[in-house]
């Protein structure tokens, strides 16, 4: 099972947390999410797998945590 | 950063920087007062972020509500801290960031650096503030007086 | 500075910046808290000078005793203030400098600038600190623990 | 009468304040002071007449205040 965390505006669209079964890569995961939450397509975000930001497609194993991070606005 | 440094960082537990709600000026005073025993310090530099009551399309910001990816933010802050200490001759450095609701006029960020000679404290403080704004996974939701909101964008 | 500006400056009475003895952290907290009603402020920059217990020829500095040519210092500070306000978009600026004895570990200088966006407050604070150190007729006498002394030299 | 103010280390040499009669210029005044306080010769200072710093010889009138300012070390 893969845990997905949504932050900032993305959590308004998809909720704070989702759990997905049997997704092999981040590309596959993002495709599933966009199908489920079409509003995600208009948003800017980066992706972190197990707290490491990734730049390309990344394979996922069971128990991974994937986070979708919109532009930061702290301070 | 070499592997040894990375290992050393990962071994130590990251310090918490998050505090619920606004940062109290009395807490800032206590922080300053605690440094009177460190008599090798010659200068302190402090940056405070305060929530602005911006007016956007005739609606006024009443508060900002902060959320964060806390574990990632603390790990990132820990790395920033180590890098700042290896770059500047600092005596100490403290960072506090609000989570949850902070009303307009209240303090949401407190960065505090100290050094023997002023330049290091001042330069380090500036750099830490910039890095906090661009590198920490923290989000501000601007709450308007009419209970609508918009997501803050950092410049 | 043109003649009109000069006249305007000279008409207003310079604000006092001097305070007897050390600057209390509680006073700093009060200063910060007073700004919560100014909801157009987004950032505060603070510099604090703290007396260092330097060791010179095996003798440790116990305190610094400050004296000033007060009237000239206040006139000069007034001009610095006007120039800083015309150069940076500041909401406000406060400066406090100790006179008399300040023990090692205590605060002797407090510079506090505020602005809508952080850059102005930070840059103004830096510039004010530098100008205070080079332009104000103030002198520090470093008092050693054995009751001898030497005159401080600014770098 | 001319009032002379000494600050910082100079006040240790000459006292905080002196009053001199009939000096026409700062050069004349400084010469008198160096005769009276030989230790002044070794010191660095700038001179202000009525709170304005001067760079060359300046004529003095009655009731002038002349200040001798060693290098500043505030903050």
Automatic annotation (TrEMBL), chains A, D:
<dbReference type="InterPro" id="IPR012675">
    <property type="entry name" value="Beta-grasp_dom_sf"/>
</dbReference>
<dbReference type="InterPro" id="IPR016155">
    <property type="entry name" value="Mopterin_synth/thiamin_S_b"/>
</dbReference>
<dbReference type="InterPro" id="IPR003749">
    <property type="entry name" value="ThiS/MoaD-like"/>
</dbReference>
<protein>
    <submittedName>
        <fullName>MoaD/ThiS family protein</fullName>
    </submittedName>
</protein>
<dbReference type="Pfam" id="PF02597">
    <property type="entry name" value="ThiS"/>
</dbReference>
